[in-house]
Write a structure and sequence with these properties.
The complex is a heterodimer of chains A (about 325) and B (about 350). Chain A is mainly α. Chain A folds into two domains: about 55 residues, no CATH class; about 220 residues, MetI-like fold (Orthogonal Bundle). The two termini of chain A are about 50 Å apart. Chain B has about 350 residues and is an alpha+beta fold. Chain B is built from nine helices and 21 strands. The chains are: A mainly alpha (about 325), B alpha+beta (about 350). The interface between A and B is medium-sized, with 18 and 26 residues.
Chain lengths: ~325, ~350
């Protein structure tokens, strides 16, 4: 039978590649896609096509019924808003819109607040991440839950909570007010606090994951070589978690930049003081749509840039 | 630079209780099966794992006393460790890795680099000074690890299976180099290994750790001649038995008897060893001078060059070493019943 197949030149079946004795040829696992190399008995299967005959091999995965149209719907749903923004943007008026003093103020304020939020997040978040990753202290589970909480809490609820803690009559706020005369709500500092509250968890979680995956091996080695705790952190740990720290800081910054609910609730909506870009967009939609779109485009570009910069972190084959 | 340590600690499932001492310039080999607690012991000496009980005194300085609650942190112990997985800092060049310990102690960058270059040259790695660890071969990386530990002039050098991760060729080379450097090392050295060859060739004293307890200590020759546990006996390739000796006969737990040539071993509880070479095999019960004749079944063969080791199961389980010709003549690869005989003069007994 083999000889006849050979004579026919090109082999036979489409479904699987069984040789005549009922076994499966291919490199071993019956789940292998049929191999064009055959098993040395002279048979060739074309179920997948001979490599080179068509350039690239098709993956051969067939989607369950209905998946493809649903997936296409999903992509369209996600793409349409972005496309719409780009198509409907008033490109000619853009330079004027972008240099409008109100717009510039919001931009500058957003930059100042978000960068400050990142700095504070790093200063507080890195030690916190280190403790969570390295020290097993009583209440660690609770601490970790608190860190993750702002990531799932509705931002406006976060703003309310901040008011109850730091407002004029808040838990800590009343002490600050009475002892130092410090008011936090409806100030730029308040805006920074609101942004830090929602964005710091991203940094902490990323850095903690980085520290855990690094493990303590190098820190142990450094300590036996004579490096004290600070020295070890500075010369060994920090350089080795720099990628995680960078990714965490970038995510933190993106989140801080885009925060709306907590900022408007705790810091209010005062132009030049607490009206960050997302708040300005919301307000501008009422009477200055061009400005709103301009600001939105800026935020879109920032987001896309971050996405591209962090693509290894999100989707990379690490 | 002498070391006196009493270590008691619990690490998960393992309870480690060991007493260790070593003199200046001495290389002590710590042998043991996996999960015996060797690495835990090393970490305790280095200060990376706190003791539950005991104390560690190095060169007269109290490094740790569990009862008093005092503990010198690892960075102040002046101990060097070489790890099995090298642990070179990936973000630093070979040179900066070696210089790390010196820099950490406050030496200037220039001077620490000079010293590092000196040590790298001693290991023949001057050309690799500016190479990152990921570009080094296993043997090169471990040399850098060794240089990094030695450059700080530690009082105690701890080597945690330093050759285990290397391929056979690199291992032989590095063993030789290690021997050379250890002979000129002034401090005390503790070498953890599960390789008997490494232990025998590098160490002057051997200590065997099994299941968190020390089962034996002595010179390599002593340990080789008088194993005191199944693990060591297998390591050195001897048949080991334990029983009570009366009048030149050792009675094993299952009632079998080993006849000795010595009538006075010195204690009623004894170990007895028989070298596999001393075991003769027959298909029929032999009549002759050997006093020790036992029945058994040939269960497995292991070919080692021009010798074959045959595992005999029975009342006196043995490993016999015979020639391939003997295996063929007796058809030992078919298994089946055999008789084993050992001359009394070949049975060595010593107090347990």
């Amino acid at each position: 039978m083999n000889v006849e197949t050979e004579k026919r030149g090109v082999a036979v079946q489409e479904t699987g590649s069984t040789d005549l004795r009922g076994g499966l040829i291919g490199d071993g696992s019956p789940l292998d896609e049929p191999s064009a190399r055959g098993s040395g008995r002279g048979r060739r299967s074309t179920a997948a096509g001979r490599p080179g005959a068509r350039g690239r091999r098709r993956s051969g995965n067939r989607a369950p019924f209905g998946f493809v149209p649903l997936a296409v719907l999903g992509i369209v749903f996600l793409a349409l808003p972005v496309v719409g923004m780009i198509l409907r943007a008033p490109w000619r008026e853009l330079p004027a819109d972008l240099t409008d003093p109100g717009v510039l103020t919001a931009l500058r304020l957003s930059l100042v607040c978000s960068v400050s939020a990142v700095v504070v997040s790093c200063l507080i978040g890195v030690p916190l991440a280190w403790l969570l990753a390295r020290v097993s202290f009583p209440g660690r589970t609770v601490a970790r839950a608190l860190v993750v909480l702002p990531m799932v809490l509705p931002p406006v609820v976060g703003g309310v909570a901040l008011l109850l803690a730091f407002g004029r009559n808040g838990l800590a706020g009343q002490w600050l007010d009475r002892a130092f005369g410090i008011t936090l709500p409806f100030t730029t500092t308040g805006a920074v606090m609101a942004e830090t509250f929602v964005a710091m968890p991203f940094l902490v979680v990323t850095v903690e994951a980085g520290l855990r995956s690094l493990g303590q091996r190098y820190e142990d080695a450094a300590s036996t070589l004579g490096a004290g705790r600070w020295s070890t952190f500075r010369r060994v740990t920090l350089p080795l978690i720099a990628p995680s720290l960078g990714a965490g800081a970038a995510l933190c910054w993106a989140r801080a930049l885009g925060e709306f609910g907590a900022t408007i609730t705790f810091a209010g909506n005062m132009p030049g003081r607490t009206q960050t870009m997302p708040l300005a967009v919301y307000v501008a939609l009422q009477n200055n749509v061009g400005g709103a779109i301009a600001l939105s485009l800026v935020l879109l570009v920032v987001s896309l840039t971050l996405l591209i910069a962090l693509r290894g972190h999100w989707f990379g084959s690490r | 630079m002498s070391l006196r340590a009493e270590i008691g600690l619990r690490m998960g499932e393992l309870g480690l209780e060991a007493r260790l001492s070593a003199e200046s310039g001495e290389v002590v080999g710590l042998l043991g099966p996996n999960a015996a607690g060797k690495t835990t012991l090393l970490r305790a000496l280095a200060g990376l794992t706190p003791l539950d009980r005991g104390r560690v005194v190095l060169d007269g300085e109290l490094l740790e006393d569990a009862a008093a609650g005092t503990r010198v942190p690892p960075d102040r112990r002046r101990i060097g460790i070489v790890f099995q997985d090298y642990r070179l800092f990936p973000h630093l060049s070979a040179l900066d890795n070696v210089a790390f310990g010196l820099r950490a102690r406050g030496m200037s960058r220039r001077e620490s680099r000079d010293r590092a270059v000196e040590w790298l040259t001693r290991f023949g790695l001057a050309d690799q000074a500016h190479v990152r660890p990921r570009a080094l071969s296993g043997g090169q990386a471990q040399r850098v690890g060794l240089a990094r530990a030695l450059v700080i002039e530690p009082r105690l050098l701890l080597l945690d299976e330093p050759l285990a991760a290397l391929d056979a060729g690199a291992r032989v080379e590095l063993r030789r180099e290690l021997r050379r450097h250890l002979s000129t090392f002034a401090g005390t050295c503790l070498l953890v290994t599960h390789d008997p060859l490494e232990a025998m060739t590098l160490a002057e004293q051997l200590v065997v750790l099994e299941d968190g307890r020390l089962t034996q200590s002595g010179t390599p020759d002593q340990v080789r001649a008088h194993p005191r546990s199944r693990y060591v006996a297998e390591l050195v390739g001897l048949n080991l038995f334990r029983g009570t000796a009366t009048d030149g006969v050792v009675v094993l737990a299952n009632g079998s008897e080993l006849v000795l040539a010595d009538h006075d071993v010195g204690s009623p509880e004894v170990f007895a060893v028989i070298h596999p070479r001393a075991v003769a095999l027959y298909r029929a019960r032999p009549e002759g001078s050997p006093r020790n004749v036992w029945p058994g079944t040939a269960e497995g063969l292991e070919v080692l060059g021009d010798r074959v080791r045959v595992r005999i199961e029975g009342p006196v389980p043995l490993v016999a070493e015979v020639t391939p010709a003997a295996v063929a003549a007796l058809r030992l690869d078919d298994g089946g019943p055999v008789w084993a005989s050992v001359k009394a003069t070949e049975v060595v007994a010593y107090p347990a």
